[in-house]
Structure formats: C-alpha cells, structure tokens
What does this fold into?
Amino acid sequence: MASGVDVNADCRSSFLDVKLGHKYRYVVFKLKDDLSQIVIEKKALPEATYEEFVEDMKSAQLSKECRYAVYDMSFRSEDGLCRSKILFFMWSPEEATVRQKMVYSSSKDALKKALGEGISREIQSNDMGDLDIRNIMEILTRTDRH
It folds into this structure.
C-alpha cells in the first residue's frame, strides 16, 4: 500500500470467481473518485468478448482515467491445445491525468498482492495498439511453455 490506497475486499472475491469458478470473463477495477480505494467497476459474464473489454478501456480513456483489469483469456497454443490464462491489465492511456497515472502506477502492486496468486501475465497498455488482440495472442503464445 505504498500509495496509501486501500483495496476493497470485493476485489479479491471477484478475482477468485474468475480464477476458480470462471464466473466472469473479466473484472475491471478502478479507483474511487477520491483516489482512496480500489473498487470493482464491472464484472463481465463468461459470454463477454474481448471486443467488449476493449470498449470498456476506451470508455475509461474518454474519461481520461486509468483502469486495472483481470481477464480470463482462452487461446490455442502453438501445439493446437486449448489454453486459458489470467491476464492482469494496467490500462494507463496517454489521455489520463498525471495524477491518475501516478496513483494507479503506485497502487498496482497493492492490488496484485490483494488478489493473490493466479495471474499468468501482466500487460501494460497505454493505447489501443497495446490492446490489439493480435498483440495479446502473440504474447500468450510466445510465453506459453506448457
């Protein structure tokens, strides 16, 4: 908690719902308006698409705000097997205020620690190109060694 930001307990329980129960495709986290606590902004059902996730990030960008998210990403490995990895996204668009970027950056580790184990890969993203599904798939297949 280096930034002094608290993590709401619902964040961990929703993460466990993604990780263990596959109850949600993704969960978006945000800082409350006073930047004092990380809370859940959205829980997307398993039927949700990656395109919907990107739209949620665009909405934050239009609001000039950062976001965190965990995404249960299904993909096909290079050897043709179906895989699933939980990705942690740190969305910090160029349009976000300096204060937003600073607080989100300094609070990221507190959120990851509160969520616990189970995140396969962290993805820092600053623009729509970073969120392009082809880039994400390349990262996943390149780092998948199972």
